[in-house]
Design brief:
alpha/beta, Ppx_GppA_N, Nucleotidyltransferase, domain 5, ATPase_NBD, 13 helices, 11 strands, about 25% strand, pyrophosphatase activity, GppA/Ppx_hydrolase
């Protein structure tokens, strides 16, 4: 079985094609293709409330390229999900309809709660009886999910994101709302472990030079990496750490969002599983298709 996930974010757009096989009762997921294209739709939307004509044309071309790859890989099922940039754009629905009619690729414009739900599909194996705060920082929104005893206690999406922060488009009351949400649900939790998802925390993890098989960061290590990045110019961040340009400018504001959430929750440790929306989409597609045909 071959499945494809398209994650249409505010800072970049991703395609992942995965093969699912079963042998002697063991199911394996193998990544066949992964593409990340740096199309910053959020910069348009958070400043003008609409996607510009230039980026609209680029977006349609990109969706055409993704659809060609989906067809070439003979994918059994796919799902394309658009998050904050498209859902907040006044012409987002119109563009999604254009893609469907001209290319045949259906785009699901999802809200923050659905986004969080999909991301969490890929995280179940990390939960136990302890208290966890899942933090997913995107370009336009941050999704928070609180788990205890393997059950979700609360979930909320906030208009706080790396591109939005870069453009200085985060309203002060939104920060207060997020911190009040954390305090309300975690004030009596003595020990909270964070789980961080998103491209920027994955890069911060990579830059921390982790020990082999270590998939977590201490709050102090996150601070150390961010302090070092802030001491460098944009060009130095690009060349010294081989960062993509669209990563080099948002990694610091994104990192500060993770820090602020962890501080509010009094969390000192973060698991970084290198999973995200695309992985949750693949999980949903697998559940939807596993009974249709042999793997």
């Amino acid at each position: 079985m071959k499945l494809a996930a398209v994650d249409i974010g505010s800072n970049a757009i991703r395609l992942q094609i995965t093969s699912v096989t079963q042998y002697e009762g063991i199911i394996k997921f193998k990544k066949l293709e992964y593409l990340r294209f740096p199309l910053r739709l959020g910069q348009d939307v958070f400043n003008t409330q609409k996607i510009s004509e230039v980026n609209r044309r680029k977006f349609v071309k990109l969706m055409k390229a993704f659809k060609i790859l989906i067809d070439l890989y003979e994918v059994d099922d796919y799902m394309a999900c658009a998050t904050s940039a498209i859902r907040e754009s006044v012409n987002g629905k119109e563009i999604a309809l254009e893609v469907k009619e001209e290319i045949g690729l259906k785009i699901n414009i999802i809200d923050g709660n659905k986004e969080a739900e999909l991301i969490n599909k890929s995280l179940n194996k990390f939960f136990d009886e302890k208290t966890y705060l899942h933090i997913d920082v995107g370009g336009g929104s941050t999704e928070l999910n609180i788990y205890k005893n393997r059950e979700k206690l609360a979930s909320k999406s906030f208009q706080i994101g790396s591109v939005r922060a870069l453009e200085d488009k985060i309203a002060t009351p939104v920060w207060s709302s997020m911190e009040n949400f954390i305090l309300k649900h975690l004030e009596n939790s003595p020990s909270v472990t964070s789980i961080g998802t998103g491209g920027n925390i994955n890069k911060i993890f990579e830059l921390s030079l982790p020990r082999k098989n270590k998939r977590y960061l201490d709050f102090e290590k996150i601070t150390e990496v961010l302090d070092h990045l802030q001491s460098l110019t944009f060009d130095e961040r690009v060349h010294k750490f081989n960062l993509n340009q669209d990563r080099a400018d948002v990694i610091i504001p994104a990192g500060k969002i993770y820090q602020r959430v962890m501080q509010a929750a009094k969390s000192r440790k973060m698991i970084v599983p290198d999973l995200g929306l695309k992985d949750g989409i693949i999980h949903v597609l697998y559940e939807r298709n596993k009974s249709k045909k042999p793997l």
